[in-house]
TrEMBL record:
Pfam families: Tcf25. GO terms for cellular component: RQC complex. It comes from Cuerna arida. Residues 84-97 have a biased composition (Basic residues). This is Transcription factor 25. Residues 1-115 are annotated as: Disordered.
Length: 407
């Protein structure tokens, strides 16, 4: 029996337990001699003791069960308290991220105003939301858009494109064969439009210059000017043309190797005689002279510099750039030809005196600039009606088809 049961019985120590055993033996002896009254009393006492023992053990078990249940309930309560604390912490963390209703309503109003303004602009330009959604998704991921006529300087050199097509070693070997192992002379100025040849004479001062006429809305207008000496050479050139003798033009170029109009005329004569390399080199020399005369503020890459084609002095640059892009395109350098088309179109985009819009889509498709071509058509459609041109009607469809194939 447990100590708790012994306490209930009033027994303390081992002596009481032994005396209890002795009394039990004495009662057994008396049971045999005495009779039924004592026997009944002894049986009752023994069973009462057992009943008390069983009751005490059951009480102990119940107490233990209550203790274990209480401990389990305490653990569950602690776990619930911890979870509640975690939830409170999460709510506290999320509370700063919540946007007040007033802020949400103001943002919704701003979005509604923006959508309304975009809708009004689309109505004015004749564009519908359906047409905007038809544009490829890659065009919206370009980030800040550059000007449609912006030019990349590195793409103006056809040798860079040839290196991408055939490899740099092949192009370098071909250039070294043409040079014959000689080094570039230091008197030639480095330019963007063309790469000067080693056999070209020094440019000196040919008498050609450029001046700024005006600047409006970020667009600058320039013009070429001829010095008095250049004007005198120009008169001699006109006399040589009227003589119908090509030798007179060759003699004039020998005396004045950077007279632009004489170089352009001799290049045309070489092209008619099927001497295409010489014709292309004469055009490059004319471009080299024209670029050396650029104004410091004249920027090729910005697309915001204008020249008036109606002025006689400015026409040489238009013609030289146009012929150069034709020679470059014949060498399968379509990306370079596209950049020169953008340059020529940026000089006078409103008039387009040489009809660059009739060829620019061809080079854009060959150079795989489909997104740029679609953007050009969408931006210039309201003012130029490019969809009415047969070449653009076909090229835009091809560009959309190629973009769909890439996806």
């Amino acid at each position: 029996m447990s100590s708790r049961v012994l306490r209930k019985l009033g027994l303390q120590g081992e002596k009481d337990i032994t005396s209890l055993g002795d009394d039990a033996s004495d009662t057994e002896a008396d049971f045999s001699s005495s009779g039924g009254a004592k026997k009944k009393q002894l049986n009752i006492n023994r069973y009462d003791l057992l009943n008390q023992q069983s009751h005490s053990e059951s009480e102990v078990k119940e107490d233990d069960d209550h203790e274990t249940a209480g401990s389990l309930n305490a653990q569950e309560n602690e776990a619930e308290h911890k979870e509640a604390a975690r939830r409170k912490k999460k709510k506290k963390r999320k509370k700063p991220g919540k946007i007040p209703n007033n802020a949400r309503s103001s943002e919704d109003n701003i979005e509604d105003e923006v959508e309304r303004s975009v809708r009004e602009v689309n109505e004015l330009l004749g564009d519908t939301p359906g047409r905007v959604s038809q544009e490829p998704a890659s065009m919206h991921a370009l980030g800040p858009k550059k000007g449609i006529l912006n030019i990349e300087h590195r793409s103006l050199n056809p040798n860079n494109e040839l290196k991408r097509i055939f490899g740099s070693k092949i192009v370098q070997n071909e250039q070294s064969k043409r040079r014959g192992g000689s080094r570039t002379r230091g008197h030639l100025k480095t330019t963007w439009l063309v790469s000067p040849k080693e056999n070209w004479p020094p440019i000196g001062k040919p008498g050609l210059s450029m001046s700024l006429v005006k600047t409006e809305n970020g667009v600058s207008t320039f013009t070429y000017e001829h010095s008095i000496n250049y004007q005198q050479v120009q008169v001699k050139f006109l006399d040589a043309v009227e003589s119908l003798n090509p030798d007179n033009i060759v003699g004039l170029i020998n005396l004045h190797p950077y007279h632009v109009d004489a170089l352009l005329q001799l290049s045309e004569l070489c092209r008619l005689s099927e001497d295409l390399p010489m014709a292309a080199e004469l055009i490059e020399r004319a471009l080299y002279c024209l670029e050396c005369a650029f104004h410091p503020s004249f920027s090729l890459a910005s697309g915001n510099c204008r020249l008036d084609y109606r002025r006689q002095e400015n026409r040489a640059l238009f013609i030289a750039v146009f012929k150069h892009l034709m020679f470059v395109g014949a060498r399968a350098c379509c990306r370079t030809a596209l950049e020169f088309c953008k340059l020529l179109l940026s000089l006078e985009p409103e008039g387009d005196p040489l009809g660059v819009l009739l060829t620019i889509d061809f080079y854009a498709l060959r150079a795989q600039k489909y997104e740029w071509l679609i953007r050009l058509a969408s931006e210039w459609e309201p003012s130029r009606n490019l969809s009415q041109l047969p070449n653009f009607a076909f090229s835009i469809a091809v560009a959309h088809f190629q973009l769909g194939q890439d996806v």
